[in-house]
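Operator note (shift B, R.M.): manual run for SCP2 domain-containing protein requested after the automated queue skipped it. Running by hand, logging everything below so the morning shift can see what happened. Input copied straight from the record, untouched. If output looks odd, do not overwrite the archive copy; leave it for review.
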Amino acid sequence: MATTQLKSDAIMDLMKEHLSTDAGKEVTEKIGLVYQINIAPKKLGFEEVTYIVDLKKGQVTKGKYEGGGKVDATFSFKDDDFVKVATGKMNPQIAFIRGAMKIKGSLSAAQKFTPDIFPKPSKL
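Run finished. Output pasted below as returned.
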């Protein structure tokens, strides 16, 4: 397991806090899906750190999904690109087209993965 400090770690910590707020609970109620997010320090597919963003339970955890069943969609990013998408500096569709984001799983679930699910950039 890589112990590299990812910029994304800070965003995931904020995401955890965000999901416990009323705004976060609205996101959970609206989306109700489980996402796996793989974040690579430098190169997609290498030394990835896996996060589960569970928008059914409103939780963010590090490591493989323990919830039974499958995640609805899996995203792979490089650390810097994830930060750009999470802070609204890069549109997820553009990230996908440029190859900065890879998607596995349900495309309809993936389409609900928008910057709205993240805390507002003022908090980042």
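Quick read of the result: The radius of gyration is 13 Å. The longest strand covers residues 34-40.
Leaving this for review. - R.M.
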